[in-house]
UniProtKB/TrEMBL annotation:
Pfam families: malic. One of its GO terms (biological process) is malate metabolic process. Signal peptide: none annotated. This is Malic enzyme N-terminal domain-containing protein. It comes from the Eukaryota.
Amino acid sequence: MALMDLQERNERLPYKLLINNVEESLPVVYMPTVGKACQKYGSIFRQPQGQQKMFELLRNWPEKSIQVIVVTDGEHILGLGDLGCQVMGIPVGKLALCKLT
């Protein structure tokens, strides 16, 4: 939650914190914490990120600089069951890990 709050104010700072503290951060950014967060995602969701930029994001698709795309239908991820849109914490966590590399 604290990293999400920080990211709303400064998009880059949470990643700087994660990069400087990788070993300590992995359990927070990914499993097991993200699984618990997914089960409560509907109650902790803050605001959409990138929703207003969808066409801009799609226009960038042919760019060679895109290295990772994470896609999910939200169905039965990591044995959490079918959580629907609440499973968005999984792709968000995966992308956070990709940004660290």
